[in-house]
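Quick one:
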Amino acid sequence: MERLANGILQSWAPRKRTPGCRCCGTAGLLELFSGLWAVTGKDAYLTFAGGLAEHPDNPINQ
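Output:
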């Protein structure tokens, strides 16, 4: 699971959203990275999740 997460971190996924996929993509990534943080305690995962939540393309921030 961490290998998958590290691939996402390196791909800059939050900055490469496509129209129509923002909500589900963001929600899924938030769930993945907050869950990984809960299991591993690695702050990098929580930081990434927080960045997704604060990203200007997140519909909640518009």
